[in-house]
Amino acid sequence: MTAEGTQAAPDIVEDVFDGRATGIEVEDSGSVEEVIHRPWNPEQIRVTTSAFSLRNILDQIDERSLELAPDFQRGRVWRTDQKSLLVESLLLQIPLPAFYFAEDSDGAFRVVDGLQRLSTLYDFVRGSDTAFRLKGVEYLDDVEGLRFQDLAVQLQRRIYNTQLIINVIDPGTPPEVMYDIFKRINTGGTPLNAQEIRHCMSRPRSREILKRMTHTDAFTKATNGLTDHIRMNDREMALRFAAFWLLGMDAYMDNPVMEAFLMYATRLLDDPVATPDAKVQELERAFEKAMTNAYLIFGEHTFRKWPYGASGRSPINRALFETWSIAVADYNAHGLTMRREEIVSAARDRMTTDVEYLNAITSSTADRRRVAYRFEAAAQDAGAGL
Fold first, then answer.
1. pLDDT tens-digit profile of 24-69?
2. Which residues pair with 349 in a beta bridge?
């Protein structure tokens, strides 16, 4: 351990979304995330452009040939006045920006860019529990307070006949290229974060696995209720555990780009041949055990910076989550209970005096040396007292 307590430790900054604290520490993954190790071949990028009526798109959603990414909470966070202005744009015949869909190998489509807009329009026209009344329109005072079924027939027809420009990303596009396209076209009012993009790209199997992993009492307790996080940080942390548990540290060292690593893990979870159901069950059991063990050791400070002298409780740190969940996943709970004081002391000493470690869990967190250092440190501290 490097004792450099006289140096200033990195500041702890909590992420905020829509004016609310998220309970998650802001992570600086470093510029390594942006490095493209292999230039994309332009011939691999296959995007076709078509025009569809809104009625046709809504029918495809009802038929389930077009997926609005279930469990994607960010698709429904607009206020009623924001939704109403979008509907008013259609009534005024103002063209909407293009949408992006991703096509699966089986011919089904998923919304990649424009999810909030399309969810809003679906809710207004076809929604039952999610239907809303127009509120706060700027020009068409006559429609204020009306639902879709209350509109004049000609206005309903105008909405149905609205032509939407759809860019479809061909399923033959390599996943890494597709992910980069998604990042480039991410044009929403509040851009999607990395896990939200992965969620849009993934299949139901991986989404269900991550959902189950984060809907256990053990996870909720260890993270102080992070389940169903508004920015899907709960799913990302479960995915990080899955990635390192399935692939190991060597796989990350071979290609130290966190987004590519997590995207590959997502594809593994989506593939029942690469990751059979029995392996998934083993993964979920290991994750639940890791959550139980981590909380057994750290209590309300689980996965949070907790140096000596700290006041209050810090937000959850994703780098601490991935390392400590892996570090304690295989331990016996009774043994951890017997050594709890030694483990906590070792971890808090490191968070207080080891600036190299603090940097490894705060800035440039995707750097291979920092990833290796924090995993090694967590493994050492988890073994304290043995």
1. 888 877 754 444 445 566 676 788 999 999 999 999 999 989 987 6
2. none
Cα distances (angstroms) measured from residue 97 to each of 46, 59, 89, 111, 165: 20, 20, 11, 14, 8
Kind of pairing, strands 14-17 and 47-53?
unpaired
**What was the pLDDT predicted at 59?**
96
Q: How many whole angstroms separate alpha carbon 192 and alpha carbon 113? A: 9
pTM exceeding 0.90: no
Q: Provide the Cα torsion 291, 296, 297, 301; round to 10°.
A: 70
Indicate the residue type of 347. A
- In contact, 324 and 303? CB cutoff 8 Å: yes
Hunting for tokens 């060292």 — which residue is that?
Answer: 253
Dihedral angle sign, alpha carbons of residues 53, 58, 64, 68: positive
Residue 91: what are its φ and ψ, rounded to 5°?
Answer: -65, -30
Q: Are 134 and 148 in contact (CB under 8 A)?
A: no
Alpha-carbon distance of 315 to 353, in angstroms, equals 20
* E strand map for the chain: 14-17, 20-25, 47-53, 66-67, 99-103, 109-113, 163-169
* Euclidean distance between CA atoms 290 and 252, whole angstroms: 21
Query: Is pLDDT of 4 > 60?
Result: no
Q: In this structure, which amino acid lies at residue 54?
A: L
In what side-by-side order are the strands of the sheet with 109-113?
A: 47-53, 163-169, 99-103, 109-113, 66-67
**Closest to 197 (Cα-Cα) out of 236, 238, 242, 164:** 236
Answer whether 119's CB lies under 8 Å from 131's CB. Answer: no
Measured between alpha carbons, how far is 384 from 104 in angstroms, rounded to an integer?
A: 48
Name the E strands within 91-237.
Answer: 99-103, 109-113, 163-169
Query: Exposed e or buried b for every residue in 240-266, given b needs 16+ CB within 10 A?
Result: bbbbbbbeeeeebeeebbbbbbbbbbb
- The tens digit of pLDDT for each residue in 230-252 reads 888 999 999 999 999 999 999 99
